[in-house]
Design brief:
D-Maltodextrin-Binding Protein, domain 2; 10 strands
Length: about 350
């Protein structure tokens, strides 16, 4: 059973190709002088998670190329929806941007569309995709397991006692663990947090016992021996953790492949010349070998994708993917446990 969460962002890319005429009443002079004041890059999660790590790297590099300060602004809450909603309702002039965990936003657009206050397809203009990251299953060292088979045996011997944290109810981190739990029939107790940062703090501290987390958020704790990695969620092993097996290798579950995608969004109606300028500058940044090495060291595989790179046909496939039976079953489980 295969789930590649990155494709869900096709919803938004498709919308960018069929969007209505520009809404922003921005003068030609203002567009030509862009940017002539600091830019705010909203990170809709607390410090410490993958979105925060990537956002701060991109803010620093964009500040150099744009010759204008790009300020990271953490606006956490409601699984990333508070920060996203803020950007969606901002003036579409290029001075307020969103560092999005795009897989999660695409998931929210499908699973929680009646709860969120913004419309992913109508309220944002995609600037680009920055990269993708793997997830890794980790446990606190106090859990008496050394590998995934031992973890499964321990969970079956202790039903309902193994807690696992996540950065939010609909996050890829949560869904990856739910897919794993569902396919193996494990009884695990989920505890949602407002972001990866606080979840990692409690996991390292022993208040939580396990987690499926993005590599950028977990890597430093793994390297310091504060967390024990059991398996990565990609189809192949990753360079940052070459000795850690994939879920398929460790358990025999076929085609287990979950990654998360990250990118930058602007409010809908942002003038196309501004979007193009930002996209072009980011493409140049991501082409630099030193930047790629820096991102890779943080667990991020650079994967630039502009709005024009995605076809409507592929976007429709992405939308359908997020409505597959496994997600519907998982969502009912989430709703029942969180009620």
């Amino acid at each position: 059973m295969r789930l590649n969460l990155t494709k869900g962002f096709g919803l938004l890319l498709c919308a960018s190709l069929v969007s209505s005429p520009l809404l922003a009443q921005t003068s030609s002079a203002a567009i030509k002088s862009y940017p002539d004041k600091p830019i705010k890059l909203v990170i809709p999660y607390p410090p410490g998670g993958a979105t925060d790590v990537i956002g701060r790297i991109m803010a620093q590099e964009l500040s150099k190329t744009l010759n204008q300060q790009v300020i990271p602004d953490n606006r956490a809450g409601d699984i990333g929806n508070i920060g996203a909603d803020m950007v969606a309702k901002s003036t579409p002039d290029g001075y307020t941007l969103l560092m999005g965990a795009l897989s999660l936003h695409a998931i929210n657009a499908n699973l929680d569309k009646d709860k969120i206050k913004y419309n992913l397809e109508k309220d944002f203009a995609p600037v680009d995709v920055v990269g993708v990251v793997s997830l890794v299953f980790v446990v606190n060292p106090s859990v008496p397991v050394k590998n995934m088979k031992e973890f499964i045996a321990y969970a079956k011997a202790n039903p309902g006692k193994l807690t696992f944290a996540s950065s939010g109810a609909g996050a890829p981190q949560r869904l990856a663990m739910e897919m794993f739990r569902f396919q193996l029939g494990l009884d695990l107790l989920h505890v949602p947090y407002k972001g990866s940062g606080p979840a990692m703090t409690d996991l390292v501290g022993g208040q939580m016992l396990a987690m499926s987390e993005t590599v950028p958020a977990a890597l430093q704790f793994i390297q310091a021996g504060q967390l024990r990695p059991l398996a990565v969620t990609t189809a192949k092993r990753i360079s940052q953790l070459p000795d850690v097996p994939t879920v398929t290798e460790a358990t025999g579950l076929p085609n287990f492949d979950v990654v998360s995608m990250f990118g930058i969004l602007a409010p809908a109606g942002t003038p196309k010349p501004i979007i193009d300028k930002l996209s072009t500058d980011i493409k140049l940044i991501l082409q630099r070998p030193d930047l790629q090495e820096r991102m890779l060291a943080a667990g991020v595989y650079v994967n630039y994708l502009s709005p024009a790179s995605e076809s409507p046909a592929n976007s429709v496939c992405g939308a359908k993917l997020l409505r597959t039976p496994i997600l519907r079953r998982t969502n009912r489980s989430i709703d029942a446990k969180c009620a």
